[in-house]
Amino acid sequence: MAAGLPDLVDCARLAEEAVALQRDYELGKLPRLRDLLAEPRGTLSATFAFAKLASGRPGVRVSIEASPQLVCQRCMQGFGLGLTGASEIEFVASEDAEDAESEREFFRIENGRVSLRELAEEELLLALPIVPACNSPQSCGRAPSHATGDETTGVTGDMRRPFSALQDLLKKT
């Protein structure tokens, strides 16, 4: 985020003026995302389009784009994943009741202010896969192998079967 641009904004004022904002955040500096990253590099680009909604409340359309380096849960190696996401959010004060008929998500605010960084980070977390995995399971986490072996199972010729000694013992009894 550029110096001098506020993170906490008055969402009602921005909605009245139909303001659109764009912010960039370093992925490694987003606290709720940090533990999910293989590497803390990269940028989250977020666009916020504020508007006054038919309900009379302020709202925003949050759109994000990022390519975080995640940890594959199959091979435990890092991989890049391009993500996009968008949500329409309706702001409600802590004491206001939420409308069950609304198609939008509700975001409770205190004192009419909202953190743009928190909105962007939340949208990115919603866009993440539940179980991150490489796009190509056939080569997931495999280093090029020069040993001979069975390519269908991925077992190389120099790899021992872990229970072969047990099998030998069972044959002797």
What does this structure look like?
- The chain has three helices and twelve strands.
- The protein has helices spanning 11-16, 116-127, 164-172; strands at residues 8-10, 20-26, 37-39, 43-52, 58-66, 69-71, 78-80, 83-93, 105-109, 113-115, 149-150, 155-156.
- It has a five-stranded mixed sheet with strand order 2-4-5-8-9. It has a three-stranded antiparallel sheet with strand order 3-6-7, with no helix packed on it. A two-stranded antiparallel ribbon has the order 1-10.
- Strand 11 and strand 12 form a beta hairpin.
- It is elongated.
- The protein starts with 7 loop residues before the first strand and ends with a helix.
Brief rundown of the structure:
By secondary structure, the chain is of the alpha+beta class. It has helices at residues 11-16, 116-127, 164-172; strands at residues 8-10, 20-26, 37-39, 43-52, 58-66, 69-71, 78-80, 83-93, 105-109, 113-115, 149-150, 155-156.
Salient structural properties:
173 residues, alpha+beta, five-stranded mixed beta sheet, three-stranded antiparallel beta sheet, 16% helix
**Global shape:** elongated
Q: Main sheet?
A: 5 strands, mixed
How far apart are the termini?
A: 71 Å
Strand content: 35-45%
| Whole-angstrom Rg | 24 Å
Topology, please?
Blueprint: E1 8-10, H1 11-16, E2 20-26, E3 37-39, E4 43-52, E5 58-66, E6 69-71, E7 78-80, E8 83-93, E9 105-109, E10 113-115, H2 116-127, E11 149-150, E12 155-156, H3 164-172
